[in-house]
Amino acid sequence: MKENIKAVLTLTIITVIAGTLLGYVYELTKDPIAAQKEASKQAAYKSVFGEAASFEPYEGYSESDMRSLLDQSGFSDEAVTEVLNAKDSSGNILGHVLNIRTMEGYGGEIDISMGVTNEGMLNGMEILSISETAGLGMKADTDEFKDQFKGKTISQFAYSKTGAEKDYEIDALSGATITTNACVNAVNAGLVYCQNIAGGDKDE
Question: Does the predicted model carry a pTM greater than 0.90?
Answer without folding.
Answer: no
